[in-house]
Amino acid sequence: MNAEKRHLQWESILKMTEDLQLLSATQNWQKMNDISTQRQARLARFFSVSVTDSEAEIVAQGIQKILKSDQLTKQVCRQHQKGISSEVQKINTGRQALKAYGVSRG
């Protein structure tokens, strides 16, 4: 594979990383899952060939961007998960109250 094609391959991986962060902000979980799976496959393909000396610096910078972006995306997901957990807890509490009320009436 020539250097230009490898560069474009790497840029597409970085673009997917940016897309994942944007999708987490809009809570588009299905699309995030799809892109994450595609990105993982592209990363595996990219790194199936050794990184050349001329690529090393840009790849290292890209890896740092990916790590930082993934960390931010995980934080957004954790916050959303906490919100969902809180809502589920409220629903369960309401169900328990209704069940107790129904039992005490009978």
TrEMBL record:
Q: Which Gene3D superfamilies match?
A: Flagellar protein flit
InterPro entries named among the record's database cross-references: FliT
Which compartments does it reside in?
Answer: Cytoplasm
Q: Which UniProt keywords apply?
A: Bacterial flagellum biogenesis, Chaperone, Cytoplasm
Short name of one Pfam family for this protein? Answer: FliT
What is the protein name given in its UniProt record?
Flagellar protein FliT
Q: Which organism is it from?
A: hydrothermal vent metagenome
